[in-house]
Design brief:
Layout: H1 20-26, H2 42-62, E1 69-72, H3 75-90, E2 96-100, H4 105-117, E3 121-125, H5 135-141, E4 146-150, H6 164-173, E5 177-181, E6 201-205, E7 216-220
Parallel strand pairs: 2-3, 2-4, 4-5, 5-6
Antiparallel strand pairs: 1-7, 6-7
Length: about 230
């Protein structure tokens, strides 16, 4: 008799198993292709060519420029890069930031840090009983000195899909940079192109949709060029 317990896994919002095809695609980079893509010798140049190819393919899926794709080590780094680098770039214009009360801690902790240590003021928008951020609340919250709004595309705990395109349109009209943490969105909702978020910055995390842990991506809409951090 098999006494091993049967596992039924319901935690896909936390992480997903690696797809066998993805594992197969990764194998060369765990073996013969190990060069530093910044090196000038042929071992490094080979790695760089394949890295550039990966960026090109990602940009085709997103329907954006390859230069708008920045690879990261995951969702947290993508969120941190989007928030910290944008605020460093734009702080001469103002120090008011807006987010929601139900963001992932990878976003909330960034705003807490900027508020406590960098002198920024943060407005944390409330949500309704279904976890939705009000477009009207965002309109009321934006000020002359607002420089960044960050609202997630889909919530990791209750599954709320935010009206990010509408929220982003408000920001575009008021010339405020809009970031969306879309880690929970990819692989669950229909996708055509990155433009459907209408955002300046979009964070993506591979292990949420059958990719490897330790891989992520930040879309940065041109001509925005945040300070490297």
């Amino acid at each position: 008799m098999d006494l091993m317990p049967r596992t039924i896994y319901f935690d896909y919002n936390a992480t997903t198993p690696l797809d066998p095809a993805v594992r197969e695609a990764m194998l060369p980079f765990l073996g013969e292709i190990w060069g530093n893509p910044s090196s000038v010798h042929h071992v490094g140049r080979r790695a760089r060519a394949l890295l550039d190819d990966a960026r090109e393919r990602a940009s085709k899926i997103f329907d954006c420029k390859p230069s708008e794709v920045v690879f990261s080590c995951g969702g947290t780094e993508s969120n941190n890069l989007a928030i910290f680098s944008t605020t460093q770039l734009l702080k001469p214009k103002g120090r008011h930031l807006i987010t929601s009360a139900i963001e992932h801690h990878a976003v909330l902790n960034c705003f807490d840090c900027l508020e406590k240590k960098e002198g920024f003021e943060v407005t944390r928008l409330p949500v309704d009983s279904e976890g939705l951020v009000s477009v009207d609340d965002l309109k009321k919250a934006i000020r002359q000195v607002s420089i960044l709004v960050s609202i997630m595309a889909a919530n990791n705990e209750i599954g709320t899909i935010q009206p990010v395109a509408e929220l982003a349109a408000v920001c575009r009209e008021r010339v405020v940079v809009f970031h969306s943490d879309a880690a929970q969105w990819f692989g669950k909702e229909p996708f055509k192109a990155i433009d459907q978020f209408n955002a300046d910055l979009v964070s993506v995390c591979a292990h949420k949709f059958h990719g490897p842990k330790g891989a992520g991506l930040l879309f940065i809409r041109s001509p925005l060029h945040p300070d490297p951090v």
